[in-house]
Amino acid sequence: MTQTLKTKVLIIGAGTGGYVAGIRCGQLGLDTVLVDGGDGLGGTCLNVGCIPSKAIIHAAGKFETVAKAAGGGTLGITAAAPAIDLSQTVEWKDGIVRKLNAGVAALLKKAKVKVIKGWAEFADAKTCVIKTDEGDIRITAEHVILATGSEPVELPFLPFGGDVISSTEALSLSEVPKKMVVVGGGYIGLELGIAYRKLGAEVAIVEMAERILPLYDKALTDPVAKWLEKHGVELHLGARAGGFGDGKLSITTKDGEPLQLDADKVLVTVGRRPRTQGWGLENMGVAMAGPFVKIDQRCATSMKNVWAVGDLTGEPMLAHKGSAQGEVVAEIIAGHDRVFDPVTIAAVCFTEPEIVSAGLGPNEVAGRDDVIQSVFPFAAIGRALAIEAGEDGGSVRVIANKGDHRILGIQAVGQHVSELSNSFAQMLEMGAVLEDVAGTIHVHPTLGEAFHEASLRALGHAIHI
Ligand SMILES: Cc1cc2nc3c(=O)[nH]c(=O)nc-3n(C[C@H](O)[C@H](O)[C@H](O)COP(=O)(O)OP(=O)(O)OC[C@H]3O[C@@H](n4cnc5c(N)ncnc54)[C@H](O)[C@@H]3O)c2cc1C
User: Looking at ligand 1, which residue's alpha carbon is closest to its atom 5?
Assistant: First the structure.
């Protein structure tokens, strides 16, 4: 027999968009049901995305450090050659994921959100049936928040399965492949490709564009390209992947030549697409914007009281965008006057070295003579040298209006720069001018001093260069 349930708010998807919306709805006293069909609360980010990838990247960094010490010593430290049991590393990573799954469950419980494990299907915009192991539940809700996220794009000639894997499988391999070919040189492919290189795999990257990380400007990606070169990662730019068989991936090089690359695993990371199929979205009558669900500044869809957040709603497909949207929607439903209108959504590549971009970059201000651009290298920052983060070509760049010195964009490339991303976003969100950064006493010795110096330099009086 189908059970029926009525609620004020029904949220589909417990990723960073949906679960944060759920917690905030609960905090605001809204009767809320959250449905997720995945294996653990937290969606892609927590289970097979941001967190597990950063755990594997961290483990790879540790392995590399010991390998360096073994290969001739580093900083006077020597060690025996490291070995890795990747299944144990994966078990450690899974432990972190389980801890966070439980943490999200506890937070939702505290906020009095009812969580249902099951797959939601809509017959129309307000009628939803949840298929659970215990039978169907029909839910009617005053408000529906769609947060079904995204999934990896599959290439028709390289379907996932066997040794052709997506990022999900790459995060749970039982051993380090001897040879890995990464198809797609965006941030997910590079983060994982670099991690596997550090773990000892021979890695090749096949990218259709002329550069890796084509969404970032060249000055930011050059240090990453240098790292790849220095560490023997084979780069095939302007190249197209073809089929895979007998341990060989066929590619067509930039010059149109056919080439076979040996591969124990082919990691396909050619992008992610919004999850719009298989749950009755087509029955809801919501307008689309290309492949995404169309929303306005309130995250409202074209259907009254149907809202959408996260990857389903468009670029940037980043966890923190979805959570911020989730909070906004919960507050709007509770009667607050809110819009989702951020000055910036900073993006980070956890490559080697890392890249941060917030606000306008040089490509967006190209040809404008009313802006100042200033770069300060980590090579001139004591802290960077003291932690071996000063010699990989890293720097911080600030772009500001020439007239009123309002900061328009801040980017950085270098080790650990992900930790600077929030300070960049804060400055942009608060409408800071160069003098605000220049006038803030930055702690010494820290990497953040490069941001201070880049701002001083834009004003014409950097101290340490
Ligand atoms: C390898 C990798 C690394 C990443 N690293 C980063 C990073 O460092 N920083 C960053 O910001 N972002 C990162 N991302 C992107 C980030 O994971 C996504 O932007 C984020 O998870 C999107 O959140 P979401 O809430 O929109 O959807 P998702 O996290 O995709 O969650 C959607 C949930 O909805 C459920 N669902 C879907 N349809 C239904 C249905 N019909 N019924 C029931 N449940 C349903 C799914 O099971 C899933 O649990 C990474 C992604 C990957 C793959």
Answer: 50
pTM of the model: 0.97
Concerning whether 464 is annotated as a catalytic residue, the answer is no
Cα(31)–Cα(142) distance, rounded to whole angstroms?
10
From the candidates 320, 444, 452, 464, give the one annotated as an active-site residue: 444
Angstrom distance (rounded) from CA 74 to CA 92: 27
Is any ligand 1 atom within 6 A of the Cβ of residue 46? no
CB-based contacts of 1: which residues, under 8 Å, 6+ apart?
A: 135
Question: Alpha carbon 128 to chain centroid distance?
Answer: 30
Q: How far is ligand 1, taken at its centre, from the CA of residue 421, in Å? A: 21
For residue 19, give the 3-state DSSP assignment: helix
Task: Tell me the CA–centroid distance for residue 214 and ligand 1, in Å.
Answer: 22
How high is the mean pLDDT in each 10-residue block of the chain (465 residues)? 91 98 98 96 98 98 95 87 97 98 98 98 91 96 97 97 98 98 97 98 97 94 97 97 97 97 98 97 96 98 98 98 98 98 98 98 96 98 96 96 98 98 98 98 98 98 96
